[in-house]
From TrEMBL:
Nucleotidyltransferase among keywords: no
InterPro entries on file: GH (IPR017853), GH_1_N_CS (IPR033132), Glyco_hydro_1 (IPR001360), Glyco_hydro_1_AS (IPR018120)
Active site: E374 (nucleophile)
Family per similarity comment: Belongs to the glycosyl hydrolase 1 family.
Transmembrane region(s): none
Name the record gives this protein: 6-phospho-beta-glucosidase
PROSITE patterns assigned to the protein according to its UniProt record, in alphabetical order: GLYCOSYL_HYDROL_F1_1, GLYCOSYL_HYDROL_F1_2
Species, as recorded: Pantoea trifolii
Organism placement in taxonomy: Bacteria, Pseudomonadati, Pseudomonadota, Gammaproteobacteria, Enterobacterales
Keywords for this protein: Glycosidase, Hydrolase
């Protein structure tokens, strides 16, 4: 392995999302969102996947997003911890329903704007650049119940009004924006991904791809608006990344892996290249999908993103014989279990070379700067008798992935920065657990919501601090 060299000005930091960290789910006039309806426990997956329609909260369920890690009230202390590690970038999301509580109002909620202005000013105080996701899975519930969420074209208008408000209100404080977090997750987890639930007898593929069309048009439209409001704004798309490997060199397996990659890359193909890819027509035909489009949509889609961001946790694997029984989901996308890679406590593959492979594929395909905005190891942490958390396993995961990133940079790929996922422990999106921890900072809270919420620096905190201080040289 060659020596890892990161360019001057490379952005180092970490990432959170509003729905997994803020809590205070009704404070300051905030409206309910899709994620607020997803309980911890047995009903979580059916609700999350849109299989069980739940449009009302139940008193016998525990909802982890409602309090999360209390970032809404503790953000100043938490940002101070990030500054202590030397972060130059902090990725978070704005909760759409703090700015437009119902989603379809004509005027925004001043309290929501004030909260995020204060948060971004706090970042500015420490020289930390915010990287802001406009929608990280949390669609206002009113838009789900009244309009059917993204299946409805009116969502383009609601989302662009919301995005315009953010670009105007936070102009000068935020210049890096992402439109939809892991846009491809819409296919795999329709309710948490896009607020979709299906009616009996309808073709879910039709609903999903029509919703995807609306999101893609909305994403392109707000990219245009962002550039008009301030030419310094840079807008990215966001992929739940990780290449599919063929199970074997059998041509049928290679083709299966290519098709699985296309299923996810379809979204980024549109956002980065400005038009539907050539393979889309056949995919739609075979799935019985007909997309309703307006004449102006093709021109709107040509407003492509400035950079391509992505999450990477693990590579994936596919064969021609892959089916529901022999595959399982790591980060929602189904995959065969690759016997050649190690696994985390939650069964997610650990494959640093897969990161280099994924980055090379993406850059070859899009020729746009990349930004790795999520990466990390979800693990159980123990506090020892001295009150310390010695998370060497996390350090070694991150070290290997940073080395792979360095190799990809040496391969000639412009990488803007790196934000590790859950830099402060937060609620896991898939399981709703607190015990699946990613952070450099431990949060005293358990899966049932007990705990003081106290923050404790882990061993990885000190390690990451010197990684940043050395611009990636001291791993
Ligand atoms: C990504 C999401 O899918 O993976 C995050 O953007 C999520 O919201 C992360 O938290 C890790 O997944 P999990 O289920 O371990 O939280």
């Amino acid at each position: 392995m060659s020596e890892v060299t990161f360019p001057e000005g490379f952005l180092w930091g970490g990432a959170l999302a509003a729905n997994q960290s803020e809590g205070s789910y009704l404070a300051g006039g905030k409206g309910l969102t899709t994620v607020d309806m997803i309980p911890h426990g047995a009903h979580r997956m059916p609700v999350k996947l849109g299989q069980e329609k739940r449009f009302a909260l139940r008193s016998d369920e525990y909802y982890p997003s409602h309090d999360a890690i209390d970032f809404y009230r503790r953000y100043k202390d938490d940002i101070a911890l990030m500054a202590e590690m030397g972060f130059t970038v902090f990725r978070t999301s704005i909760a759409w329903s703090r700015i437009y509580p119902q989603g379809d109002e004509l005027t925004p909620n001043a309290e929501g704007i004030a909260f995020y202005r204060s948060l971004f000013e706090e970042c500015q105080k420490y020289g930390i650049t915010p990287l802001v996701t406009l929608c990280h899975f949390d669609v206002p519930m009113h838009l789900v119940t009244e309009y059917g969420s993204w299946r409805n074209r009116k969502m383009i208008e609601f989302f662009s009004r919301y995005a315009r408000t953010c670009f105007e209100e936070f102009n000068g404080l935020v210049k890096y924006w992402l439109t939809f977090n892991e846009i491809n997750i819409l296919l795999h987890s329709p309710f948490s991904g896009a607020g979709l639930v299906f009616e009996p007898g309808e073709n879910p593929e039709q609903v999903k791809y029509q919703a995807a069309h609306h999101e893609l048009v909305a994403s392109a439209l707000v990219t245009k608006i962002a550039h008009e409001i301030n030419p310094e704004n840079q807008v990215g798309c966001m992929l739940a990344g990780g290449n599919f490997y063929p199970w074997s060199c059998k041509p049928e397996d290679v083709w299966a892996a290519l098709e699985k990659d296309r299923e996810n890359l379809f979204f980024i193909d549109v956002q980065a290249r400005g038009a539907y890819p050539s393979y889309a027509a056949r995919v739609f035909r075979e799935k019985g999908v007909e997309i309703a489009m307006e004449p102006e949509d093709a021109a709107t889609l040509r407003h492509t993103v400035d950079f391509v961001s992505f999450s990477y946790y693990a590579s994936r694997c596919a064969s021609a014989e892959m089916n529901e029984q022999n595959s399982s989901a790591a980060n929602v996308v189904k995959s065969l279990t690759n016997p050649h890679v190690k696994r985390s406590d939650w069964g997610w593959g650990i494959d640093p070379l897969g990161l280099r492979i994924t980055m090379n594929m993406m850059y070859d395909r899009y020729q746009k700067p990349l930004f790795l905005v999520e990466n990390g190891l979800g693990a159980r942490d123990e506090i020892n008798a001295d009150g310390e958390i010695n998370d060497d396993y996390r350090i070694s995961y991150l070290k290997e992935h940073i080395q792979a990133m360095g190799e990809a940079i040496a391969d000639g790929i412009p990488l803007m920065g790196y934000t590790t996922w859950g830099c402060i422990d937060l609620v896991a999106a898939s399981t709703g657990e607190m015990s699946k921890r990613y952070g450099f900072v431990y949060v005293d809270r358990d899966d049932k919501g007990n705990g003081s919420l106290e923050r404790i620096r882990k061993k990885s905190f000190w390690w990451y601090k010197q990684v940043i201080a050395s611009n990636g040289r001291n791993l």
